[in-house]
Amino acid sequence: MKNPPYFSRGSTSTNVPAEIDAIVRQSANDPQGIYPGLELPNQDFNYKSLRDNLATHLILHIATHGEFVSNNAYGSYLLLGDGKQLPIRDIQNLRDLSKIHLVVLSACETALGDTGQDGSEIAGLSYYFLNGGAKAVMASLWQVDDGSTSLLMQRFYNN
């Protein structure tokens, strides 16, 4: 693959490392992994590394915690590996999303939206990746079990 996928994980969950290791092939000799890619685990997964590595990859897979905040249009976020939040305003500032063919948000409530108290629509996190130019986004409408999500993601990429 000319531009390998880009993968990150921002969760301390015990299932996230297995999820990413099963998807990302670290080298030609790696018996695990489906796609060659860049893995940014834990502290290495921060806003700067996300921003600086989008341009050369076709798939962005983020395995972390997501939080939908229904009463605040810009309150929803993804948790980065350095413990900081990736809020909607920072997602809106990512400039190379148009080069990404698929964003996979392996986290809770990343597609969930709502209506604000004034009747305005509150978009889910996935909307901002699409609005930024990503071709497609795979996201969740509900709280997801970490172990089941890891298996689902592994089978998704394997197929």
Write the layout of secondary structure elements.
Elements: E1 6-9, H1 15-23, E2 24-25, E3 35-36, E4 38-40, H2 47-52, E5 59-63, E6 66-67, E7 77-79, E8 85-87, H3 88-92, E9 102-106, E10 114-115, E11 121-122, H4 125-131, E12 137-138, H5 146-158
Parallel strand pairs: 1-4, 1-5, 2-3, 5-9, 9-12
Antiparallel strand pairs: 6-7, 7-8, 10-11
In short:
With 159 residues, this protein is α/β, with parallel strands linked by helices.
Low-confidence stretches: none
The oligomeric state of the chains shown is single chain
DSSP summary, beta strand count = 12
Main pleated-sheet profile: 5 strands, parallel
Q: What's the gyration radius in Å? A: 15 Å
Mind explaining what this structure looks like?
- This protein is an alpha/beta fold.
- The protein has a domain at 1-44 and 60-103.
- The chain is 25% helix and 22% strand.
- It has five helices and twelve strands.
- It has helices at 15-23, 47-52, 88-92, 125-131, 146-158, and strands at residues 6-9, 24-25, 35-36, 38-40, 59-63, 66-67, 77-79, 85-87, 102-106, 114-115, 121-122, 137-138.
- The strands form four sheets. The chain has a five-stranded parallel beta sheet, sandwiched between helices.
- A hairpin with a 5-residue loop joins strand 7 and strand 8 (85-87).
- Helix 1 packs parallel to helix 5.
- The chain is globular and about 55 Å long.
Tags for this model:
alpha/beta; 5 helices; five-stranded parallel beta sheet
